[in-house]
Structures
1.
Amino acid sequence: MEQFQRVVADIVAGKLPQQSDNVTIYERSFEKIEGSNIIMTKSGTEKYLVVAGNGALYNELDGESVGDGKVCALTHHNSKVLNKHFEYTKPQAFGTEIATMGLGDRLGVASPGHIETVMNRKVKPILAQQSIRELTLLNRTMTDILDAATFAVFQEGYKDGYGADADHIKLEKDIEYALGLGFSFLTLDCSEQIRNDIEGATTDDIHKEFASLPVDRKEYYKNHYLNKSFEVQGLEISYDEASLHKNVLVYGEAIDFMEHVYTEYIAKADRAIDFEISIDETETVTAPEAHFFVAEELRRRGVTVQSLAPRFCGEFQKGIDYIGDINQFEKELHEHAEIAKYFGYKLSIHSGSDKFSVFPIIGKYTEGLLHIKTAGTNWLEAVRVIAQVNPDLYRRMHKYAEEHFEETLKYYHVTPDLDSVAPLAKTADEDLPAYMDHDASRQLFHVTYGILLTAKSSESGADLFRTEFFTTLMNNEDAYRASLVKHIGRHLDLLGL
Ligand SMILES: O=C(O)[C@@H](O)[C@H](O)[C@H](O)C(=O)CO
């Protein structure tokens, strides 16, 4: 810890420490608060808070004494101390007044680049966003992602607000846990309650099942929807008996679940929560009239949502551009955007990474009433950096990903043409980064992140890639930051944000 002597001496004197060969100084983090001076630093590949003085902040941070100061690891305890003393390091809800972007960070090191990307733009960052699926595949916790966001915001001196999305939550215990941790955004995944089987049912079967519903339910739906017309910005929406019965059966249980969660958790929360309904991860494409039916039912039941994610026509596969008829997509996206505006919530786009061909359409019709989610693409930019600076590591990861790809298909729906991937053995080192520009190799890495970052040697039990991956990335932090600023910046430019 001797390398911190000068840093400590400088902040004891209230001076911004000078950069040195051994210690990187994150100048925007420097804070002087009630008798304590503090700054974020990095030595080697590890980051530390360096604090001096005699205030509460100094006394409450856990760290190793160096001179008249302390050098503090980025622990959960120290994250909560920062939250206590610096309000801007805590996540917040944004409502529907400004566009928001989910910037899922599977590594816990992307947020500084994300913060730089969104500065001075018409969008707020949801820096902490990981689904239960991602957390499970990476052996990470919700606390880990909140801590990573807290330290990144402090490091960057970013005081314009960020969010934390407990993403694709299905279980009430996870809702309680996430809200208790301080998450500001809850994405309720209703895929378990949506009746995909109705899609293939015969009209007679649908009528019979509808007829079996309680009389009062049937009367309610008939009175409010049957042969009724709703006009949404020129879009005429109506429900005959067949379409009403189908929507009631497909979405009825899901809407009950949404109402329950809103009533029991969101409405009772002690702070504003951005509540998102996710019906995107289902086989059933959300027709505009189905979107309206769900939204109108939520309105009738007094449920307020800040965003809703339909399942769009075509395919929003991970890490690659839109697949489908762009003209049909434009027609339906326009209708979905008008429905969202009619009810006053943001249209949410999941798997929003890399959908460059449809971003102008999305930006045109949502007009900023938009939430767009990315995650895996930020991991792929890290893989790109590895390919650039550590070709041997890239080659070993690429080979392992190819060997284990099939295992990921139980978690993700991707259909890469792996035969189109250039043979690794025939690819020169300088051409390795180009794999991140090819759809199939992008998807190969996109969905094998968990396998790669938790892979262990069968002999020694040591991790195969993780340690070297993070060491390489932390030794090339600026390259990763620049890659994110360029790639996510391209997303926002095309969205008009
Ligand atoms: O991979 C995941 O589970 C998440 O990134 C999830 O897909 C997220 O909701 C998303 O859509 C990010 O693009």
Note: DSSP finds 19 helices and 15 strands in the chain.
2.
Amino acid sequence: MQLPQAFIDKYTNLLGDEAPAFFASLDQDVEHGFRLNPLKAKYQDVALDLHHPVPFVQDAYYGTVSGKSLAHQAGYVYSQDISAMYVAEVAAAQPGERVLDLCAAPGGKSTQLAAQLQNQGLLVSNEINTKRARILAENMERIGATNVIVLNEDPANMEQYFPAYFDKIVVDAPCSGEGMFRKDHNAVTYWHEHYPAECAVRQKNILNSALKMLRPGGQLVYSTCTFAPEEDEQIAAWLLATYPELEMVAVPKVAGMTPGQTAFADNDSEMTKAVRMMPHHFQGEGQFVAKFQLAQTAPELAPVPTTKKKKRRGKQARGKSNSLSKEQLALWEEFKQSFFMDRGGQKFSTNNLRLNGNYLYYYDASWPDIDQMKYVRPGILLGEFKKHRFEPSYALALAVQPAEIQAKLDLDESEWRQYVGGNTVQYTGPSQPNGWYLLVCAGKPFAMGKLVNGIIKNFFPKGLRF
Ligand SMILES: C[S@@+](CC[C@H](N)C(=O)[O-])C[C@H]1O[C@@H](n2cnc3c(N)ncnc32)[C@H](O)[C@@H]1O
């Protein structure tokens, strides 16, 4: 790989004797990994090689996964770089917590945080870039978490709505991406000498917003995929200097991980509590992770909102949320009765429904009001009301477990392939009445289908077909 001379000079100076090994490693192949998704029933029952676990990350393995496999489509697996997996592992969200992933697309950390939460508590996954926020929403939908809101906001706009609200915040910051040079040689072309310093300005702005949303006693995890001290140790040191109520928490180092470098931040010895993953020592991409604790006694850092809340913004935010009409409620209840065992029990109860236009969402009544914010997914999309009927969503199929559904049809792998390719399927199983069914292949729910006189009509989302 052709590295810019300024980059070579910089790291020759910073890394000294290690520099040749560091530069050489940027031309070597990277080890791939994937994580299984414990939110799915029997999640380890996948046709993948699970003989090589990543020892320091829950449910993670070395290897590659096809995006066109059943396990991937049905949300049982997420491909992720080995180093990147360590960020959410360090955040260690606990069931019941309120967690914010502030720079979340495409969803590597968010999918992992959702798994840690086990559908208890709330995960707000935010992405500022609209196109990327949609991809994030698709990934969150695929893994089937039922406690996730996907926002498409500038962090600065979020402060007033979530003052001192979250127990944990992950800032996986936009950065100069030097750690990605190995995987994406094109990334080198964006790099210039002043790029890290420019990124640092943006990182500080994002962190200032994040801290206003962190509750006293809460924890912040900051990470980048760059080697630049300006964006790593120097940002961590700036945080400590700017927010005396913050202290660093030591991040455990496993084989190959190196401590943050004191020399990169005015000999601040706290920096050894952070971790660096450098490609000449560690098998994944380059990564920096630092963890901070906000003192329990810290004053709330958020301004008390005094101004009137802004009007709803953005296309997705249009259509005031309102309650269901009698007909809509009856259609939903009718669907629930035929689809779920025990009519769904307490799941998706009427208190937790929210209508946006004709779209019906599950939105837990205890969650914060996001009406004023730009969102992509305000909870789980359950389905859409069409003329005198209810059409259940793909997201619902991925958010339920087979055992809680009575209306389901088992398809084999070739029928699955036919269906995800956008085709109808001739149903050959025991006779069933017409209606909506959860489609299941090898025990994995993968879509909704409508059975009409022995044919399963195709409702697989057009953009996801393969
Ligand atoms: C390193 S990536 C996040 C990767 C993600 N956490 C994952 O694990 O899949 C950083 C993200 O920050 C977003 N971003 C860019 N500028 C931002 C800003 N000013 N505030 C918040 N996020 C920003 C980028 O669009 C990008 O998706």
Note: DSSP finds twelve helices and 22 strands in the chain.
3.
Amino acid sequence: MSDQWLPVADALATIQRQIEPLHETETVALHDALDRIIATPVHAGIDVPGYDNSAMDGYALRAAEATTDTPLKVVGSALAGHPYTGDLPPQSCVRITTGAKMPAGCDAVIMQEQVQRTDSTIYCQSTVRPNDNVRLQGSDIREGAVILSRGQRLTPIHIGLLASLGKAEVEVFRRLRVALFSNGDELVLPGEELQAESQLYDSNRFTLHAMLQRLGVEVLDLGLIADDRDALEHAFQQAMRSADVIISSAGVSVGDADYTKEIMAKLGQIGFWKIAMKPGKPFAFGRLDESWFCGLPGNPVAALVTMDQIVQPMLRRLAGEHSAQPLQFQARASTSIRKKPGRMDFQRGRFTQRDGELWAEPAGSQSSAVLTSVAKANCFLLLEQDRDTIETGEIITIQPFDSLLT
Ligand SMILES: Nc1nc2c(c(=O)[nH]1)N[C@H]1C(S)=C(S)[C@@H](COP(=O)(O)OP(=O)(O)OC[C@H]3O[C@@H](n4cnc5c(N)ncnc54)[C@H](O)[C@@H]3O)O[C@H]1N2
Ligand code: MOO
């Protein structure tokens, strides 16, 4: 156990260094593939489009013949799914609809709005160049091209892309299994009667569970565990049997976590850290047999912020996902912002755009017990460790809330 304060970047780097991504894979159907992580690069087995086809409703023709004073005879039609297979004599054209295969001999399409048609003859109203309004075979994707690489998280767009290549299944890493419990004698389950003087509802487990759902991991919810040595040890043993990662909230600050520390020392190697971040200072991290353990602070905002900033990148790496830096922008402080040097602040803020510039300010109370200010916020104000109070108009870094929080 160290009394050192660990800068946020060092905590992140230490965790990333220790974590090895899992390697077990499975094959899933496209409908089950959303948010899964690609395990094997996906190559295109076909060209897309698979054949030259029309981008417009109009007439397929030879561009060289499309002069404004040459009548072109309409010799047939090509519809999507019903190609034209007849001949194309000189000075003729084929009626064509969007997506239909280009008839042999035609090299361009003129939109129907740009022709005059009389019975079975058209007159072009504009000149046409080869390939006008034609989508060429393979112009989107070439057979053999790498479409998705290992470590990509599948979005609705990727799933559409896979379908467009005719792939019904995709090989992904297996889901991470994360065990979750909260700890504290003062906590009561939502839905139950509360003794208002001494109890509060267990909100952390619900916040964290929802965040884990967004990440697409399998959650093993072990519930609310009392401050009792045997109950805690039992919860850890149960979690260690089945989970890649165990996440608990509360019981990691200085005085009140004796059971947790004692049990962890018995079951594995856990370090208790003081991360130089606000909120979220007390944090436990380590190994319990085959599982990783993250002990989050009990204060509701501290639990949420450490989950977002510290645990999220760890879970992503473990699940085989490529790391991606969260989006950050520069904004001007629209009020002065109080801050003490020593810890990096993750203040909950609101940003807006005015006159082409981003402006941001704290969204109410910054107490780590006050969840309502997070509900009003749309970003973190990232105030560097050594920074002091920020004056109105000064530049700060903001990080819009990510998909775990919105
Ligand atoms: N002497 C010191 N005291 C504290 C320090 C310190 O460095 N020295 N750190 C403070 C900070 S910062 C935090 S954060 C908390 C973290 O404490 P724990 O992780 O040990 O958690 P608890 O003390 O059990 O609870 C803190 C707070 O959070 C409420 N809580 C706990 N679990 C839940 C839950 N599941 N849902 C909602 N609310 C929860 C709990 O009732 C307490 O109010 O320690 C400071 N103290
Ligand atoms: O840092 Mo604590 O985590 O202020 O609530």
Note: Residues 182, 184, 186-187, 200, 202-205, 249-257, 279, 281-282, 297-300, 302, 368-369 surround LQZAQKY5 (ligand 1) (CB under 6 Å).
